[in-house]
Design a protein that fits this description.
Distance between the termini: 11 Å
Shape: globular
Oligomer: single chain
Number of domains: 1
Low-confidence stretches: 1-10
Helix content: under 10%
Number of helices: 0
Order of helices and strands: EEEEEEEEEEE
Number of strands: 11
Radius of gyration: 12 Å
């Protein structure tokens, strides 16, 4: 999956991970050699903010009733093909250049 674009974001993932206004991710959850991992009643997340894995960002499955979604959300420190996001929720697929949790910078999916 290629993610493209860059943009501002301010949002939390299920683990408490955040993404700031410059599209940089900070992970929550339990540290592993490849980043952090989290699983709980509100969803699951794998996140890397620079530790171990070559790509930084988050893979999120959020469980919140009708607001549930799954997303891949890239970090500004990646090459330009992996800085945006792709998301699937009850209204279908979405893509963007900001943050997947808030759908900022949304544009048509390729």
């Amino acid at each position: 999956m290629l993610l493209s674009g860059a943009g501002a974001a301010l949002a939390n993932g299920p683990s408490g991970s955040t993404e700031d206004s410059t599209n940089n991710v900070s992970c929550g959850g339990t540290r592993t050699p490849a980043g952090t991992a989290y699983a709980g009643a509100n969803g699951a997340e794998i996140c890397n903010d620079g530790a171990g894995a070559p790509i930084q960002g988050r893979i999120i499955v959020s469980v919140n009733g009708a607001g549930s979604y799954a997303a891949a959300d890239g970090d500004a420190n990646n090459n330009s093909n992996a800085t945006g996001w792709s998301r699937l929720d009850s209204s279908g697929p979405h893509c963007g250049s900001g943050d997947a949790t808030t759908k900022s910078g949304e544009h048509s999916c390729p």
